[in-house]
């Protein structure tokens, strides 16, 4: 088989994933007076609703969408920080969402996470050296102190933090430097896969590009795979191999980055992209969506986007669209595209 016909290797598999959060409050909050009787009612936020997604080895898969669409919940569920309400997560074909702590250890070494806020994610009572040494020791129990120190120095150097600063505390560093240290902590255990949840959005605009370049550099040198959560489409255009677009807990489109920006298929993706300021004259005019995103407590019937979609018909109001394959190797969940109307 020629190289271009080969299927990409799937590193992480997200299957039929649902996550709902119980927001009913305590027992007394749940009691409601209805039809002359007291009844107990539970309320849920339906944060993820049937997401299927594969992360390919070596890619940077960006997940985009407006605030509250479920991006972070996908990231946290993949990392085992949240338990799926339904569905499962596999790593190289092995299910990991139901593993006990001990069985999960080898995967914790392979899978690392970088968080949005470098101020909150570093322990203020530990020196940077201690912060970086801790995971190296944990995941390499047979290593000598010299091997551990060498590894810490190597990752500090690779993220542009002087290894001689190991005795300093997190508060002695700027936001950009702290995020570099968080990246170093993730890299210190030689992971294969990194989930980065809005890793640059808390940083000054002037240093966002530096941190992004650092992550791209690390990807190339260390053969990393990223699941990159962001609301910033200009970041995606530079960083992403493929893009997954989410709306109200569902995946509406998945496509190679170039195709998505050149020819978005889903009406929601088209509206999102039309909002990016561009210099070219041929840019599509801004598509202004009607109304607000509905509440994830009471999901709309049919396509979750139908209430705001300029192309919705009766079928869209009733039937949930399935993801269908597109010519460019992507997928789109839209009745209009499937019917050839769009
Ligand atoms: N622990 C929780 N309890 C209740 N609701 C939650 C919880 N975590 C997330 N949610 C809700 O789930 C939905 C999805 O949240 P999530 O943080 O995944 O979205 P997001 O796309 O990452 O948004 P943002 O970019 O603002 O972080 C939102 O409605 C959010 O309020």
UniProtKB/TrEMBL annotation:
Residue span, ABC transporter domain:
12-273
Question: Which keywords fit this entry according to its UniProt record?
Answer: ATP-binding, Nucleotide-binding, Transport
UniProt key word Membrane: no
**What's a single GO BP term from this record?**
peptide transport
Q: Which InterPro entries match?
A: AAA+_ATPase, ABC_transp_ATP-bind, ABC_transporter-like_ATP-bd, ABC_transporter-like_CS, Oligopep_ABC_C, P-loop_NTPase
Any Pfam family from its record, for instance, is oligo_HPY
Superkingdom field: Bacteria
Signal peptide span: none
Recall the GO molecular function terms of this protein's record. Answer: ATP binding; ATP hydrolysis activity
Q: Does the keyword Nucleotide-binding apply?
A: yes
Q: Which PANTHER family match?
A: D,D-DIPEPTIDE TRANSPORT ATP-BINDING PROTEIN DDPF-RELATED, TRANSPORT ATP-BINDING PROTEIN
**Protein name per Swiss-Prot or TrEMBL:** ATP-binding cassette domain-containing protein
Which species does this protein come from?
Oceanospirillum sediminis
């Amino acid at each position: 088989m020629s190289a271009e016909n080969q299927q990409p290797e799937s590193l992480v598999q997200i299957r039929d994933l649902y996550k709902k959060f119980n927001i009913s409050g305590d027992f007394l909050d749940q009691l409601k007076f209805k039809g002359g009787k007291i009844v107990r009612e539970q309320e849920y936020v339906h944060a993820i609703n049937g997401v299927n997604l594969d992360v390919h080895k070596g890619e940077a898969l960006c997940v985009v969408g407006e605030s509250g669409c479920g991006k972070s919940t996908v990231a946290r569920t993949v990392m085992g920080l949240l338990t799926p309400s339904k569905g499962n997560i596999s790593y190289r074909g092995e299910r990991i969402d139901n593993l006990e702590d001990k069985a999960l250890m080898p995967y914790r070494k392979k899978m690392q996470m970088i968080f949005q806020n470098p101020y909150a994610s570093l322990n203020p009572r530990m020196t940077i050296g201690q912060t970086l040494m801790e995971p190296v020791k944990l995941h390499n129990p047979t290593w000598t102190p010299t091997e551990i120190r060498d590894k810490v120095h190597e990752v500090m150097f690779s993220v542009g933090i002087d290894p001689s600063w190991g005795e300093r505390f997190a508060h002695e560093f700027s936001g950009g430097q702290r995020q570099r240290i968080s990246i170093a902590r993730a890299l210190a255990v030689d992971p294969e896969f990194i989930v980065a949840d809005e890793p640059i959005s808390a940083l000054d605009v002037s240093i966002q590009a530096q941190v992004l370049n650092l992550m791209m550099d690390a990807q190339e040198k260390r053969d990393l795979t990223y699941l990159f959560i962001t609301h910033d489409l200009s970041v995606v255009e530079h960083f992403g191999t493929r893009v997954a677009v989410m709306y109200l807990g569902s995946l509406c489109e998945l496509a190679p980055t170039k195709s998505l920006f050149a020819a978005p298929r889903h009406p929601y993706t088209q509206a999102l992209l039309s909002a990016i300021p561009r210099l070219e004259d041929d840019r599509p005019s801004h598509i202004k969506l009607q109304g607000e995103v509905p509440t994830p407590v009471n999901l709309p019937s049919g396509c979750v986007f139908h209430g705001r979609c300029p192309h919705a018909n009766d079928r869209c109001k009733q039937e949930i669209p399935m993801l269908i394959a597109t010519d460019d190797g992507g997928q789109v969940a839209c009745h209009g595209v499937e019917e050839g109307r769009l």
